[in-house]
Here is the input.
Amino acid sequence: MKQQIIMFQLNGEPLEIYADPAESLLAILREKLGLYGTKAGCGKGECGACTVLVDDQAQNSCLIPAGKVQGRRVETIENLSRGDVVHPIQEAFVEKGAVQCGFCSPGMIMSAYALLKSSPQPAPEDVKTAISGNLCRCSGYKQIEEAVLCAGDKMKNRES
Amino acid sequence: MSYLYPSSLEEALGILRDGSGRARVIAGATDIFLQRLPHSLVDLTALPALSGIKEESGLITIGAAVTHSQAAASPVILAGAQALAEGCARVGSPQIRNAGTLGGNIVNAAPAADAAVALAALGARARIVDIKGLTREEAVEDLYRTHNRSLVDSSSEILVELIIKSCGINEGSAFTRFAARNALALPLVNAAAAVKVENGLVKEARLVVAPVKPAPTRLQRAEEMLIGMPVNRETRLAVEKAAASEVEVRSSLLRCSARYRLHLVGVLVGRALETAAQRAQQRKRGNDS
Amino acid sequence: MIRSITAPDPKQAPASGCFPGIDYDQNPEVWAKAAGRAVYGTDLKMPGMLYGKILRSPCPHARIKKIDTAAAEAMPGVRAVLTGEGLGCKPFGIVVDDELPLAVDRVRYIGDEVACVAAVDLQTAERAVQSIRVEYEELPAVFSPAEALEENAPQLHRDFPGNVAWQRNISRGDSEAAFREADHVVENTFTVPAVHPTYLEPISCVAESDRCDGLVLHTALQSPDSVRAIVAKVLELPLSRVRVIGPVMGGGFGGRVYGNLKLYILSSLLAMKTGWPVKMQLTREEEFTVGRPMIAAELKMKMALRSDGTILAREAEIITDNGAYSAQAPWVSNTISERNDSVYRIPAVKTGVRLVYTNKVPTGQYRAYGNQAANFATESLIDMAAKKLGIDPLDLRLKNCIREGDVSVHGLQINRCALDECLKAAAKKIGWDRKKAGRGYGLSAAIHANGSLIFNKKFRGAAAQARLELDGRVTVFTGEQDYGQGAHAAFARIAAKALGLNPDLITVQSRDTMHSPYSLGALAMRQTTIGGKAVQLAAENLKEKIVQLAVSLSGEPATMENGVVRGSSGMVFDLAAIAYDYHSQTSGLSLLGEGKYVPEKSDYDDSGYGNISVTYSFAAHAAEVEIDRDTGALTVHRIVAAHDSGRIVNQVSARGQVYGGITQGLGMSCYEGYLFETGRVANASLADYKIPTALDIPEIEEIFIENEDPAGPYGAKGLGEIVMVPVLGAIANAVADAAGEWVTDLPITAEKIYQAMAGWECQ
Ligand SMILES: Cc1cc2nc3c(=O)[nH]c(=O)nc-3n(C[C@H](O)[C@H](O)[C@H](O)COP(=O)(O)OP(=O)(O)OC[C@H]3O[C@@H](n4cnc5c(N)ncnc54)[C@H](O)[C@@H]3O)c2cc1C
Ligand code: FES
Ligand code: FES
Here is the structure.
């Protein structure tokens, strides 16, 4: 498709890009914007490695035509840490051993982030469902689930 | 022309009209984005006419751009069209459910689309407008041309909303599916039932299974057989038998053999029926108390 | 509460009993991964980089009559087009030399490499590849070993008549007599499909050529030194001019020991031709259609027993499906054929194994090397025997299982072994004595080699270096790779323990063949046992040197304890000062500790008898399952995993290995397997090749029986591969217990369970 101007909010900042609206958001993030934190495992919605938040909801960026984010809020893994300071979810992932090869981790963390935004103290079953669109071949998911629950606690403690 | 954001239904129809077949609507993009893309795309997700879920005088209206996540969590749908909430909750993954829409699920015309199967059992009607401004209303299961081809032409027609009679006293619905894993898996078979039960006897029934034909398939013989029957184990077994006898299914290397699929059709219809009937009876009790 | 990436709070997680430091993987890279900042192979981009794409055969078997590349060559943006003709490369392989970088006159499977292109971007490269016209003359093809072994079957490779790529007959003891004298014989045929490691990151590489015989390959490998040697040989480059640098690896599981050699060779050829870096990457579909799955196998097996349950002999006839080219399939076939015989005291064994060419995707290896496939067969057979003899499956196993001090039927020396304890512990925890109604229970036992002595009979060990840096920190150089299993964190802990330092002060380096000691790589669970031992020795050597230097500096006796160097007068030496002093004295050298661990030579003989490994790990798993009798749907509720992997270096990482390995075992048991339609992979996507999701995982309970093994560093040995092995048998046996019928064909799907219960004829 012909390139066009697409305006959206990326990681808290307004952004205007000139791009093919039929290109995937994943490709735009990685190839055009240099944000390689979002990973590509399949390009077809089948692995979740490319998960980002669009208006606070977890979505597969490989299935989003760039045109679709016009006027929306997009958040990627790069927005969760600042310099040396990482997000409690990331901290919990490392401490609980939820990061092995780490290729699923950015997507996994974004799914966890979306869950904790809408339900700060999730039940273990909710955690399983929330990450069920994110394949992980290394971990067997157990330590990831522990990490998400632990992150919920960390975030609560941080607020209080 | 390219990627377009109409702000009203009329504007969207106007773009399709001007596109003369080269423009197509796009909703959640989960299906269309992996297919060959048209010259231009008309994004429907921001249109007020296609958003929202509301209930008025016993009718539930669901915008075609409502996502599976929204439908699965909607109090209106959970109360009045439980099978749909259950079907939507089982689609793909959270990410897919956050993007994919009910309209897309129907118009994409996959034979075992979860929302479409539930909608067909609930007797949902789809309101469709075309570029000439004509509006029609059709049963969801009547919108299929052939395998993976809808009768809704998304370059000249827009599915606007779905209308379901809200579940009343003595009525209940349920959805069930059987898949090779618990997420990110298309079903080997899915089934949904909606019934009305009075004094322990079935008064009305709609039973739907897929994939059998291109469209979600009503089990007419089993439905007829059910009328006037008590809801018990024998009836369920009879329905399982009847269901398996009135459909033909295909073997597929990726999913299962025809014989097993046929067996699943019976079991799943039976289970959907049983749950729907239980719910119908609970609704009565609930109202009594 | 926010913590810095560089300084994790050691108070958060307590340390394992015997090792210093916090108990999760503290490699700084882990923080980078969580932050989305780690650079994987697929993320690499270089100035001037071109993109390569491969044209693949659409035919399962055909003669190439003509290739016309004119249109591709004329396309703007295309920088190079290569075909097999004129490359002049000799056939290469890992075990058997049967592959060429690009097909010369014949293609042997759908996906075979025919031509390749380098262009300025991926789209151009794809269009260029599509524009290449190839005329094929289709040849008759064979899609199963049975077809391939027929008398007049089409022959795939001239040098391998009868389509047999490799075979072996093993005979130990007098199995014929044993079968004659046995009270009972059980037998069955088991089938296992090809399975893919399914690491989440597809394989990619960037090749850079410096135009003076030099080549740098940027790709993440479990065995970079082995790949480097093959690439140098195929391209006829001096070995020292080929360098492999590893970005972060998105999962390996055996699939990245050699990775995808064709990709590395072709991108190198394109880089050498164009003078620019060339990136190539497999799509997910290519991962399945041309990546290297583990071989499918058919195992016909029988076992002779006495009425009291004593196993007398085992015989097996095994056929493995090689696909069109061999890769590591001979080794995997070998493991399938014999490893399981050493789980029990079996006096006599007779096995024939044949690896057969077919016109399908070539095969490679996967975590545990086929040991898990054989576990499914052998352990099912054990339970069949238990049922026939009326003996409890636990008792039958305890009666026969291998024990400390044994030499197994194939000559494996079992010096340290807690298999019986593992069996008892797993059975106890699953509730073997108080089984719940409506549930099925299964047990399974396994052995796995730990640091192969025979993979390369001359090169058996590992080396490492520990360098004291000018700031008093220590850098460990190893050839062993970390791909998320926590190897480097474990090495840091091992070195920390040897030096008495905090692991935070130790950095582990491995990813560059130019600087790292040579290593056989992450395979055969040699990392912890052999690689870790070398690190221990290097660190100890460094410690000695530090103390020596302190002695010569102060002229008094000195010691190093808890990381503090102290002279006899009580004087304390700063490590940085020692490093600096040495550095000045020698005009720039660093204080370097070296460690080499050279395990004793094996007595392994030509018949394949003898000790194959430094030591062995053991495990027993127990499964609790439930079956929906209406549909055959299987729910695996619990897996208990009891492991004897010696001392556990890092509890958090070890648990991660157990959960991940069991999940892969569950996948192979119940979900995974290649499906073919006349040679074409029918399920070449993550939607159709189903690996378990978070909603499919049972409760997993791990038990570590920390039976220290002197062969490994501080008594530790390998865990990463064996975790996947016993799951298969445990699930198969639990399913049989619940269903009353056996499913002998993996994966154990609901349909197969239902068929077995309903007594349907299999189609
Ligand atoms: C990984 C994955 C897993 C999936 N799993 C499931 C599953 O388990 N069950 C299931 O049922 N589906 C599944 N799907 C399919 C898909 O997500 C659903 O069918 C979804 O509901 C499609 O909606 P959409 O809004 O994304 O459609 P789009 O992709 O936007 O559109 C699909 C088609 O419908 C047309 N269209 C959309 N809206 C309208 C409208 N209002 N009027 C006219 N035409 C319209 C479009 O032009 C297009 O032709 C899966 C998909 C993926 C990628
Ligand atoms: S890359 Fe988007 S879901 Fe796999
Ligand atoms: S950590 Fe490797 S895929 Fe999840």
